[in-house]
Amino acid sequence: MRIALDAMGGDFAPGINVDGAIEALQAMPELEVLLVGDEAALRPLLEASGYSGERLQVIPSEGFVGMEEKPADALRRKPNCSLAVCWKLMAERKVDAVVSAGNTGGVVAFGLRTRLFLKGIKRPGIAVVLPTATGQTLLMDVGANPGARPEHLAQYAVMGSVFARELLGIASPRVGLMNIGSEDGKGTDLIRETHQLILSSGVKDHYIGNVEGRGLYHGEADVIICEGFVGNVVLKVSEGMASMMMQRLAQEVCSSLSSERGTAAAAFKAAGKSFEHNEVGGAPLLGIDGICLISHGSSDARSIRNALRTAVELKDRRVNAQIVELLGQTELAAG
Fold first, then answer.
1. Is residue 97 classed as helix, strand or coil in its secondary structure?
2. Phi (first) and psi of residue 102, to 5 degrees
3. Could you tell me the pTM of the whole model?
4. Does residue 117 carry a pLDDT above 70?
């Protein structure tokens, strides 16, 4: 498997991308990585690492998309930036996947411009795995499509269900639709129309209907669908709350159990790992005819390594082929 890694993406690029790629190559002998970025910056890092394997090569690009840069501006002004080259490589079938810890909007924008969508998919979406009281829940979409239509959300239900089954190991994922109430008829026109579409989709037998926001972390569903604006707000609020709660709890326990300060701190640190982005690696942009993983901007080498690993798993589990097959069994596929 060959993966194009946006070497200039992320708060700590390019160093963490080089280190993460090398760690992944050492763990996965079937993997090849193309480091896309500033050759003058990458070559010294590779030399310093001591890695000399043939499965890692540098692909030159011109510039990169800054973390605060508007994606629309980057599309116009940076046609040969690292993200643009990554997506071009996948569009030309020279790589199987794109991985980036760069500007999320930029990753999505350059990807959508290629129109490299799976057969039948109208709009790709970003999926994230979140910890819950009973295990894990996949939330989709968290930012790729803030102006979603009912057919987009219904397709997310199909894509999320396949991902949860193949990557999370849930045989029959319960699919829920995020809403302001659990009763039928609640919510906006978008939600009510989506509800009816999912009832006629390939996941209707595992659809449990509306799920309120509090149900996310109670584990009421294995897959929860929402439009991108709502999903992004939920994700950012969750990250902030998780960080705050773990810090406050650790402080309280450590102050009251001073004789076991190290033990308590270590326990809370371990528990907090379930909320850390570097344990997951990256969020897949599902619906792409290929594979795309979007890592957190503050990713470290471990996160990049894990994102590369997840990309390999997505291919090995034939997630895209199963999405196309399941969509083909319903009226949700695009004409």
1. strand
2. -85, -165
3. 0.88
4. yes
Mean pLDDT of 76-87: 97
d(CA 7, CA 17): 5
Alpha-carbon span 310 to 60, nearest angstrom: 25
Residues facing residue 57 across a β-bridge:
34
**In degrees rounded to 5, what are phi and psi of residue 299?**
-60, 150
Could you read off the pLDDT of 43-70 as tens digits, one per residue? 999 999 988 888 999 999 999 999 999 9
Q: Please name which of 208, 204, 209, 211 lies closest in space to residue 234, comparing C-alpha atoms.
A: 211
Cα–Cα distance for residue pair 78/91, rounded to 1 Å: 18
**Which residues contact residue 37 at a Cβ distance below 8 angstroms, ignoring those fewer than 6 apart?**
6, 7, 8, 13, 14, 17, 58, 59, 60, 61, 64, 82
Query: What string of DSSP letters covers 134-157?
Result: SSEEEEE-SSS-TT--HHHHHHHH
What is the sign of the dihedral through the CA atoms of 151, 152, 153 and 157? positive
Q: How confident is the model at residue 274 (pLDDT cuts 50, 70, 90)?
A: very low
Which amino acid appears at position 169 of this protein? G
Pairwise CA distance, residues 5 & 109, whole Å: 17
pLDDT, residue 256, reads: 61
Lowest mean pLDDT among 36-45, 70-79, 255-264, 322-331: 255-264
Tell me: pLDDT of 291 over 70: yes
Neighbours of 270 (CB within 10 A): 9
The Cα 145–Cα 212 span in angstroms is: 21
Nearest in space to 174 (alpha carbons), one of 155, 160, 190: 160
Sheet with 2-6, strands from edge to edge, namely 56-60, 32-37, 2-6, 97-100, 291-294, 283-286, 125-131, 136-140, 223-225, 175-178, 207-211
209-237: per-residue pLDDT in tens?
A: 999 999 999 999 999 999 999 999 999 88
CB 249 within 8 A of CB 225: no
